[in-house]
Amino acid sequence: MPANERHAGRIVMITGAAKGIGAATAHAFALEGAILVLADIDMVALNATMAGLPGAGHLAIRLDVTTPDDWQAAVAQVDDRFGKLDVLVNNAGWGNLRSIFDTKPEDWRRLIAINLDSVFFGTMAAMPLLERSGDAAVVNVSSIRSRVVGFGSGPYSAAKAGVEMFSRVAAVECAQTGRKVRVNSIHPGFVDTPLSKAQGEAARAARAASVPQGRMAEPEEIAAGILFLASREASYVNGSALVVDGAFTAV
Ligand SMILES: NC(=O)c1ccc[n+]([C@@H]2O[C@H](COP(=O)([O-])OP(=O)(O)OC[C@H]3O[C@@H](n4cnc5c(N)ncnc54)[C@H](O)[C@@H]3O)[C@@H](O)[C@H]2O)c1
Predict the structure, then answer these.
(1) How many CA atoms lie within 13 A of 43 on its CB side?
(2) pLDDT digit string (tens) for 54-86?
(3) Domain spans of the chain?
(4) Whose CA is nearest to atom 36 of ligand 1?
(5) Residue 236 catalytic?
């Protein structure tokens, strides 16, 4: 029996669900009784994540979030199986560290496509299914880089700031057009993922020391924020941005 059943029976779709924050979020929703639609381009890792999920009835879909046709096909599969969607977590994202002076137009377009186009394409493709929920939530994974610059965060920061503002626009337009779909963004600070572990202990220690709380976040701590924003406890939280960063941007 899940300790908390806030999401029991709800249909929850997560992009970039194969690894990192997406996989931790899928696990947390499943522990609360949700039925998951996991989407990613890495099917080997996605199937491994799927195999480790508690509960039953979950669905894994290959989806490139930068491609509108993939979104239409994925939403059609969700419609066939479930007929509605209660929660969409637009989590898939990617960044590199490169000065704008070394960023080529194709690098810019790629980062904007993965981090920002994806959120617009996904939210709009899923909207008809979200509307059928009657009590739906979209959570868009942005970053502290939407607020503060780090060296080499150029197109990534621009995209993540776009995610925050798109979330606010979508929240207002859904509410003003009578759609029962809340939209919020979440802004993680430094998260201790396999990628950060691979960068070595010295790099990890330096990052942790730059955070007032003195450590990086665990992916589960970001998942907890996503589950709150998607829950009925957050029924009046709409068009907001939840920063989960150990006070990094408060300084
Ligand atoms: N890790 C951090 O420190 C951190 C901090 C702030 C924000 N974020 C954001 O959190 C989200 C998740 O990051 P993470 O650290 O878990 O990353 P991760 O690299 O561990 O996982 C990202 C997942 O997205 C998938 N993906 C990449 N491109 C895709 C595409 N085109 N279509 C579908 N799936 C695709 C990858 O296969 C992977 O499974 C991202 O939006 C990232 O920008 C991460």
Answers:
(1) 6
(2) 999 999 999 999 999 999 999 999 999 999 999
(3) 11-241
(4) 16
(5) no
